Structure prediction request, 375 residues.
Amino acid sequence: MKNLAARGVNLVETKMSVGFTVKKKFVAALICGLIVLGAMVGVFGMTGTALALPLGGMGDFYVQFDKLEGKGFEMLPQIGETGNSDASPMVRNKIEEATVYNLLIYKDLKLPDGKWIRVNIKGTQPTEIHGLIQDARYIEANLQFSNLGIHEKNTDDYTKNWSQSAEKVTITNAKIVTDYLFQTMVKLQGAKISIESIDKPETIN
Amino acid sequence: MGKDKAERKRIKAEKLEAKLQKKHQKLENAGKFKLWRNHRPFWGATLSVLAGLLILYIPIQLYAIAFVPGSFAFVGFLFGGLVLILGVLAYLYPQFSTVLGVIIMFLSILSIMGALGGFLFGTIFGIVGGALCIAWKEQEIPHLPDQSKESKESNHLIDHSEVASTKSTT
Prediction:
């Protein structure tokens, strides 16, 4: 009898849980995700809008434009990294809203074979920017401010030591050597990207 | 028509059960890690954690301006951090894997704002990881221990005891 019981116990059905992936659900979820991603990228692409666009960590690059009309301007001292140094004195320009006419951004790059090329990004239509932050090493331009104010503060923190702010700013015929650029939102409609070979890189010290 | 459908459903269910039984048999001799992995959406959670780290990469590089008012880099921090935490939660609370998967996918796509989606790799990993979490399921299956082994063992036991009992009676 004992043996029979033992045999009976051995044959009792036990329940075990096994984790697995339901293929149909996986494919459906993946397709839904990719459709939403495609729709989002499509909307940004059609309107030429980019959100939170950072450009930096690659050394000097040049920003040129015919005219910039901006609101909510602020200039602060800044020390930042450039292509040649870990800490270089700069100015940080902040503009809440800006419209730039004939914008040209270019960067000179050295190819592995020793030749130089220039990558150009050109805005053929007015470029709208919100939340611009730019660290510049060199500025060559005609500047016009309205309600300009300079504020000084007795502090050891160099970023708060002095600041310059203006309600409106108009910059014309500008050439700016930039090391860092960040835009919360940029509408670069009719952008043209081109690459040309050059003899040697542009240098401004 | 109705019979055909029912038949197809039955065949599918049988196939699934056979697959699960096979998987379970493999797990019988598995180590601790494999057993732990079996009870959670392991690959979904792992891809989600990876996506979170990739999404966080850009806001970490921009930490200097991340807390400037109106800066979207702060949003990147938030999205990347949340995807990372939800990935870890998928390991700890597998019963909520579907909800966690949906949120992971949603945040990974939104992370294009503020973190460029971890150069898009973070977004892609987040979508795949989230989909794996959504599709993960744990099912109880009736398990009969390996009958061939069992029968051999039980026969062996019976033979022994029967011999013993015959001995005692004599």
